[in-house]
Write a structure and sequence with these properties.
The protein has 45 residues and is an all-alpha fold. The chain has one helix at residues 29-41.
Length: 45
């Protein structure tokens, strides 16, 4: 089961839903990061 982070961020932290991923990269990492970002930001999952 996932544990949710507190809504209050510390100084210097960025919310995962606001992270921009370079979609033009030919690497596989951006696709993985987008999937993880979707999972993290969708509470129904």
């Amino acid at each position: 089961m996932r544990e949710f982070k507190k809504a209050q961020l510390k100084l210097g932290e960025t919310d995962i839903s606001k992270v921009k991923v370079d979609l033009k990269s030919r690497d596989e990492i951006p696709k993985l990061l987008l999937g993880l970002q979707y999972i993290y930001c969708t509470p129904e999952i």
